[in-house]
Amino acid sequence: MPHGRLEQRVLGLVTLGLVAFGIVMVFSATSTPAALGNGDPMTFLTKQAIYALGGIVLLALLSRIDYHRLRRLTPMLLVGAFGLCAAVLVVAPPINGARRWFVVGPVSVQPSELAKLALCLWVCARLSRRPVPKTMSELMKPIGLVCGAFCGLIILQPDLGTTIALVLMVGGVLIVSGVPTRLLVLSGTVTLALGGAAIWYQPYRRARFFSFLNAAQDPQGTGYQITQAKIGLASGGWTGLGLGHGVMKNSYLPEAHTDMILAIIGEELGLIGLTLLVAAFVMFAWAGFRVALACRDPFGKRLAAGITTLVCGQAVINIAAVLGVAPLTGIPLPFVSYGGSSLIVLLAAVGILLNIAVNGRVVEARVRDRSRGNSRARPARARSR
Asked: Which of 62, 87, 129, 181 is the least buried, fewest Cβ under 10 Å from its Cβ?
């Protein structure tokens, strides 16, 4: 099989399978509560299907457009994403105490989701053209400052979960870029210290963190959500109660169709269903990092690693939080949880990853144009070793 085709097929099949599975689980998690409340059971299903269709169209388009062209768009995307993240703090209406979404009729747009992809593209483009940072000063200017500015805006919304996802994604890109271990450890320590300060500064974040350490201490208060999630997971046993037969979604488990959808999956499909879901993300990680390792283009290698880290890192954090082995951060389960902005942006990112799987051996280089006697940028195909 030609280079990259196997990984491309695995990524495509796993992604589409997770999206289809997510639509089914969103319907299962929302239809009964809507019917009991005299609402339309099809509302969330219809919206998620429309978001999925739009994301799949973007996936198909970006999988056919040479990813090298995206390098030229990175400054515009970065500035646009930063402007939207700043504007949402000023003009967006507060929803559940947070200003994260622009609301236009029935549609809500979350700029921080776009910021993930824009920042990933910019960091990868910058690191692929310049020497690898060796000191904290080199890392901070400008990558650390730009990432810090984005994180600061997103924390103000407030959205600590997306901030964590951004940091993980940038960390994956730095590792693949060959940043020295001592610098990674130092920057990681500084980031953890700042994250700890952000948690301690806000009482609700502090309460959520300590409830993770001992949820049973306040099962009706700060530990309510994680306690209900554990009950749902335990109720499922090996095979689950059956699709649509779960009871935790009926006013027992908050955010059952978004952050906590894994608990519904465990309750209705059991340990077997959870194992297959985890296996799907493991396959995605295997294929995505194989694409990054095989890619000869510095920009493509970093971009493939960043996208794979973004998807799988969010999955790990969400699964760990629902299982009670990590604090709740509000990070949705990629492709499965309800949410238009997250689904569309991640599907667009997978489209780029699919393109890298095939075109990753095409390296942009300056090749002399002998017919005109000058040099110009032309794509040059790297030789296979």
From this structure: 181
Question: Cα(first)–Cα(last) distance of the chain, in Å?
Answer: 17
For the chain, list residues with pLDDT below 70: 1-4, 35-39, 212-219, 221-222, 360-385
Distance CA 27, CA 134 (A): 50
Concatenated DSSP letters for 37-86? TTS-TTHHHHHHHHHHHHHHHHHHHHTTS-GGGHHHHHHHHHHHHHHHHH
172-208: pLDDT as tens digits: 999 998 889 999 999 989 888 888 887 777 777 777 7
Q: Do β-strands 107-109 and 362-369 pair in parallel, antiparallel, or remain unpaired? A: unpaired
156 belongs to a structural domain:
yes
* Backbone angle region of 202, left / alpha / beta, with phi > 0 → left and psi within -120 to 50 → alpha: beta
Asked, for residue 316, whether it belongs to a domain, the answer is yes
The answer to whether residues 275 and 237 touch, using CB atoms and an 8 Å cutoff, is: no
Quote the domain boundaries for residue 203.
5-364
pLDDT digits (tens, 9 = 90+) for 66-85: 998 998 899 999 999 999 99
CB atoms within 10 A of CB 248: 23
What is the CA angle 37-38-44, rounded to 5?
A: 80
- The Cα-based distances of 117 to 81, 341, 358 in angstroms read 9, 12, 20
Q: DSSP code of 130?
A: S
Asked if residue 376 is part of any domain, the answer here is no
> What percent of the chain is helix, strand and coil (3-state, nearest 5)?
70, 5, 25
Provide the 10 A C-beta neighbour count for residue 52: 21
Based on the structure, what is the number of domains in the chain? Answer: 1
Distances (CA, A) of 164 to 36, 109, 194: 36, 20, 11
Domain assignment present for residue 374? The answer is no
